[in-house]
Specification:
The protein has 306 residues and is mostly helical. Helices cover 79% and strands 0% of the residues. It starts with a helix and ends with a helix. 47% of the residues are buried.
């Protein structure tokens, strides 16, 4: 696990140094992000999900990944003594994790390629539709001055229908459900594109972190706690209680312990939603997760006797 952490830090550092040295210019991380968003990750999801047997055990695994996220989000939103805007911030940062951009690379480095990455893609398919939808509903409600949840949901569904990650998940799951798979003429190039996800995502994160305003550093520590400490703990309990295999449990714990999604900063600008807190929160949660994820993996080994 230490070698995985060092590998991740090196790749993030490469992206940060590339910006600092002028090898990448301001805004170049958007091009890298676009490559991941439109090409690499959709290819990975279609390629890996199409090969998974969509049986009851698979659906159970996907559901167990989403359950702790939805439970924590509902709990936070129910805390009425807290101001509504703060509840929205806390819920969004707790549930909207960097599953694909950070979770899949971490799983590949820490647990290996092949089956762990396929399980990570399945976890994204089970968790991401709910978390992306919830995040967008909260942002729409905030940006519209208290828009009714139903109206925010309708607008969110329109956005989800154009999201390449969600669409590629739907295509991959549909192919698996139909038992069609992929012809080699498609499987090979999609697999090649998908395998670039891990290094490019981490370099992009490093480029993104360069030059941000991190003055609100201390509040970010508290905001990161539900995502890095509470949610993976709930996931560990759920996975152990459901008697998942050690690998399945470890993958779910990692995916639900990933840092806040990098795209949150784009959304925060668009909706004028706590812009000053988001950048330091991404830094704190990204770096902090390298420690907490290793600790959670050690806890998972203890639970499953690994």
């Amino acid at each position: 696990m230490l070698s995985a952490t060092l590998s991740i830090l090196v790749l993030v550092g490469v992206g940060f140094a590339a910006r600092a040295l002028g090898l990448l210019g301001e805004g170049d991380e958007r091009a890298l992000n676009g490559y991941l968003y439109w090409l690499a990750l959709p290819s990975l999801f279609v390629h890996d999900l199409a090969q998974v047997p969509l049986d009851l055990a698979t659906l159970r695994f996907m559901g167990l990944g989403a359950l702790p996220v939805l439970a924590l989000g509902a709990l936070i939103l129910s805390l009425r003594p807290l101001p509504r805007d703060f509840r929205y911030l806390l819920a969004l940062t707790a549930v909207f994790g960097s599953l694909a951009f950070f979770g899949i690379p971490f799983v590949e480095f820490a647990l290996g390629p092949g089956e762990p990455v396929r399980l990570a893609a399945l976890a994204v398919a089970g968790i991401a539709p709910f978390t992306v939808a919830l995040a967008l509903v909260l942002l729409e409600a905030h940006g519209s001055g208290g828009m009714r949840p139903g109206a925010a949901l309708v607008r969110t569904l329109r956005r989800l229908s154009r999201n390449p990650l969600i669409l590629s998940i739907v295509v991959g799951v549909a192919l698996a459900a139909a038992g069609l798979g992929l012809p080699s003429s498609l499987a090979v190039p999609l697999g090649m594109l998908g395998r670039t996800t891990a290094p490019v995502a981490l370099v992009t994160l490093g480029a993104f972190l360069y030059g941000r305003d991190y003055r609100a550093f201390l509040p970010a520590l508290g905001l990161a706690a539900p995502r890095l400490l509470v949610l993976p703990g709930l996931t560990l309990l759920a996975a152990a209680g459901a008697r998942l295999s050690p690998l399945e449990g470890a993958v779910l714990v990692v995916m639900n312990g990933t840092p806040i999604a990098v795209n949150t900063i784009v959304l925060s600008h668009r909706y004028r939603f706590h812009e000053e807190e988001i950048a330091p929160l991404i830094l704190v949660s990204s770096l902090g997760s390298l420690l907490t994820l290793n600790l959670w993996l050690l806890a998972a080994e203890r639970v499953w006797g690994g």
